[in-house]
Every structure is written in structure tokens, then in C-alpha cells.
Amino acid sequence: MAAGYGVELDLQLSKDGRAMVFHDYSLKRLTGTQGPIRQRSAADLSELCLIGGEEAVPTLEEVLAVAGGDVPLLLELKDQDGRMGADIGPLEHAAAEAVAGYAGEVAFMSFNPHSVARMARLCPDRPRGLTTCAYAPKDYPTLSAALRAHLREMPGLQELGASFISHSHRDLTSPHVAKQKARGLSVLCWTIRSPEEEATARRIADNITFEGYAA
């Protein structure tokens, strides 16, 4: 924020229905604690220290208070059932409630098109997009080949009123990306970890999600 960068954040749901800023489904990698985040209340999560610092797992409301509208926020809603299906709702409603009245710039995205569609209804004035990739079988072993192929096509972007995609930087030459770029959608990409990767990605991408260096 001090450098003026926008911030990309991931949202998971707590046991008591709060939108938590946390990337993983499991608490182990980032807190050293066993079990899924979904099985802990927001109060319990506020007692868990993130590895490498003294901060706890924050609610979205807490992060919005810190951001204070100073920089744009891109919020990715994580798929909650592991099937990219229509069994969604609680996380989307929690996120919408958290940003209600927030004056800063916020956009939503998700790998799950159903989640993006729900955000279109809940927060029609906030930009939204689809997080996308090549859907290689090794990366998504729980999804059927037919569903992977369907998601690879980036379904429903027009119907969702999406203004962007955020695609894996390793697959930016995909014809599906070219199709959306030709339609006028902004192309973002994830996750860049070096200036060399950035230079390659920016041949196609309009903007990047990056970490580990100053872009």
C-alpha cells in the first residue's frame, strides 16, 4: 500500500459465516495448525498466529479497515465445495455484507462461475471477473474431464457482466485468452515471481498479480 500497489486477497469462510482473508483451505501451511479453516469460528481464527509474524487470520472487515480505500482491492472467493458447482452462497453473502458501504475500489473474482454470478446479483456495481487457467488434470484431479473442458472455455463471461479474466501466467498464449482479449476484456494474470516472468507476461496481460519482488 505504501508503494501504491493494488492488493489481491483470497477469501475463505469461517465456521460462523464470516469472510476471512486466507488463501488455503487448510490452516497447516500458514498457521501450523491442523484442520480446515471452515471448521474454526472467526473468534478462534483471531487467536491463531500466522507463521512469520504476530498477526492473526483477519476478517475481511478488518482488512478493509486497514486499506481504508487507499488502494484498489481484488478479492478472490475460493470455491467452497471443491466441485466448482452451484453449491455456493454463504461466502458470497458474507463478502457482500463486508464491502457494503466501503468507499474504496473493490473487484471480485473466482474460479467458480456460479460464485461470480452470485456476486453480480449481490454487488452489481462492483467489477467482477473469472479466475482461469488451463485446468490440467494433475492440478484438478477431483474435477471430471468434461467439467475441466467446460471451465477451460471460460463460460458465461458475457452473462456474468465480467470485465476481466485473471489467467495463469503460464498459459497466456491460450486461444481462450486471445478470444476474451479480442472481446475487450482486461487480461490479468497470476502469479508472477520475477521481473523476467513479468516481461513475458506483459506481452499479453494488461496487469499482473506478483509477489516476492517490486514490480
Description:
The chain has an 8-stranded mixed beta sheet. The two termini are 13 Å apart. Helices cover 29% and strands 19% of the residues. It has helices at 28-31, 42-45, 60-67, 90-99, 113-122, 145-152, 157-160, 175-182, 195-201, and strands at 7-13, 19-21, 73-77, 106-110, 128-132, 164-168, 186-192, 207-210. The protein has 9 helices and 8 strands. The model has no long low-confidence stretch (mean pLDDT 97). The longest helix has 10 residues, at 90-99. It is of the alpha/beta class and 215 residues long. Strand 6 (164-168), helix 8 (175-182) and strand 7 (186-192) form a beta-alpha-beta unit.
Q: Give the tally of β-strands.
A: 8
Percent of residues in helical segments?
A: 25-40%
Terminal Cα span: 13 Å
Cα-atom Rg, whole angstroms?
Answer: 17 Å
Order of helices and strands: EEHHHEHEHEHHEHEHE
Q: Beta-strand level of the residues, as a percent range?
A: 15-25%
Poorly predicted sequence stretches spanning 5 or more consecutive residues? none
Strand order of the largest sheet: 2-1-3-4-5-6-7-8
Mean pLDDT: 97
Structural class based on helices, strands and sheet pairing:
alpha/beta
Largest sheet: 8 strands, mixed
Count the DSSP helices. 9
From the spread of the alpha carbons, the general shape counts as globular
